[in-house]
Protein 1
Amino acid sequence: MANPFRGLRRIFRKLPIFRPLGDDVRLHVALDSLSERIAIFDRELRFLDVFGQLADPGIPVPSRCLGRTIADVYPDEIARIHTESANWALAGRPVTYDWNIAVGGSEGRWIRTTFSPIKNAPADGPVLVALSRDVTEIKRAELALRNSELQFTAIFHASPVSTVLSSLSTGTIMDVNDAFLQLTGYTRAEVIGLRASDLGLWADPSVKAKLGHGLRELGHLDYLDSKIKTKTGEIKDTLSSLTLVERGGESFILRMDYDITERKHYEDALKASEEKFRSLVESLHDTVVVLDRDLRQVEVLGSSPRMPLTDAAAMRGKRPTESAGPEAGRIHEEKALEAFAGKAVSYEWTWKHPTGQVVWYRTNLSPMFDANGSVARLVSISHDVTDLMSLA
């Protein structure tokens, strides 16, 4: 019978620790010290020898294997896997596969086994060698990575926010979700593999350099005012958040764009309306003052011909007693306190013009309520009623 250890003997013969021993003894000691398991089989798939310290409740001990077949020592399903793989190896090529040992309802251990044919093997001697090693930790890491990838993919595509994944080094778009396609009007095939610059996606390219520098420095950038150009050329206003992510040892940019185009339109319309209102109020011959709960004048608009507001800015932030004088200011503050109780208040008061003329005003105080029904501010509108009072 040919010696199956010939090749291994040449290797271990060179190790000084084994030189005092006989060749076969040295080889057996070396093989038995391995953390893997090595098994030698004949053509009937009987164990001729078993080495190594790979141990698990689901792996038979060497003494139980010798002289027996794979089907004799393993459960049916595992025996079937081993037998099929061994038969493939008998056809002349190595076979590697992973299999799981689950004992007593446990998670079990993952084993990676390689069957290799022995070259020039005699018909009645060893023909196969199998090397098995524990790869449970590798499998757990692979499973964790796979689960992480699946979770990332599920969240990425389910997000209602436009999301793009692109390479940090090349800018190539790797993936986009449906929300991005709806926002831009592109199909997935039209963008995958291209760069945003190829499509002219970002309407303000000058921002790109600033974003790239900040992203590398911080790892993320949040809620940036941005603009996206759609397939039809329409410009969309967005709030953009960018994050650096690692996948498979590569760096990518995950960009999320919240479409705020309608909100921008509303804000612009509101701003125009406020400007129009301000112009209208300032053209009236009435004085409009907004007071907060501390009786501070937070807004002052309009003017009266006989009492022009030459410095409305100087009045803002002050109480009436600080801007209208002690007597008139006291009246205003007393009436304001009444209005803060939740009811409209109307009253007349006088102001002496530098010419000596006494000017009469009628002021209406109206409460402004917040979402909870509490009075948050007051609106004071003062109208010159001197001519009317003179007729009384």
Protein 2
Amino acid sequence: MLDMVRFIMLPFLFSSDAPNNPFTVSDPGKYSKLPHKTMKYSLTIIYCTLIVIMLTGCTMIPVDNFAPIRKPAQFVRLDFPDHVYDNLIWFPDGGLIALSNADKMVSGKLEVIYATESSIALEKVFLEADTYCQAKTIYYWGGELPDSRIGSVKLCLMNDYKQDAKYLSSYDWRSGKVEQIVAGPLPNKLAGWFTWNSTMTRGVQDDSDGMVGTLYWITSQGYEPMDLVLEQGNKKWSLKDAFLDESQYSDNPQFNNYGIAHSPAWSPNDQQIAFWASFAAIGQKGFSRLDSEYQLVFLNPDDMSYTITIRNIYHPGHLDWSPDGAWLAFWGNYGKSFGDTNELWLYSPDKNELISIGTGIFRSLAWSPGGDELAVLQCKDLLCEEGQEVIQFDVADIVLHEK
């Protein structure tokens, strides 16, 4: 307690009237451009901020002096057939595939267009359509699951659109088997990006369209809201309270009181879940929420404590852990909400180091099994309608040499 009192009293020692002030500037000339009162008040604000952080349930790494590093990485364009792909998967055996969502019916089956680096032309596989879905079945591919299957969100369209539903499924690329991995339909049609722990006993999924967004737990038995309150300064919101029924979405001013959370990524060692959170969206309305600043949050799934690290990120993409769990890859803009391109970033949680390795318009990314290369889908136009190139970045110099 005495240490806490001493810490709280530190700002007041910066007064020149304080007796025996241990912080008296020995060379005032060095600080002639900084008025004494301004210096004192600035230091007081810093200490008060630290006190608030100490008394709350969260930790925030100081980032006022944080500066990203721009270190363009060497890259090559892989020889994939020209197409509009939706996802990249890099299997543990080294096979890299680019594939499109299954949304086209051919002779009563769903067509999946894909390619590998050795493909001379586009290749196809076919999935059985779900006969329960009266109008149409669509599979939206997610990332690779811990057991090397491909995760997917299945959209089941009905004759009455109010009965449309989403289900979480897996697809075994080797056997062609499709299996539902979460019981029952997902809570809302916004259900999107998902992640699992290494044993697939528990996962997290986001419910977001960019203007609203929260997270919830998933298991093989179903789903449940995440009971977590995120707080920073005078802004906070409950992910559980933001978990509203889809019927409450339309023109609901209540969403203006919540921030946005999306793109969860469970670390390979199961110790933390990274996701994007926007406190700046609180109080914003409509499309202005899309341009809100984001911060990176790390959640301990055991005790539900969290740490807030980098901030000043706009329009961030999905987070993807390196195989050893030392780095996170994502795309987004740093310090600006608009731009014709994004930057591709690598972030080290241990070092609090953010490195830009390239620029472009990105759609998907995948780490190589060895963690020394990063493949991305780079769009040829802003809306990604004219196809993409598969780009492979050599990141060994960064992720291996900086350990």
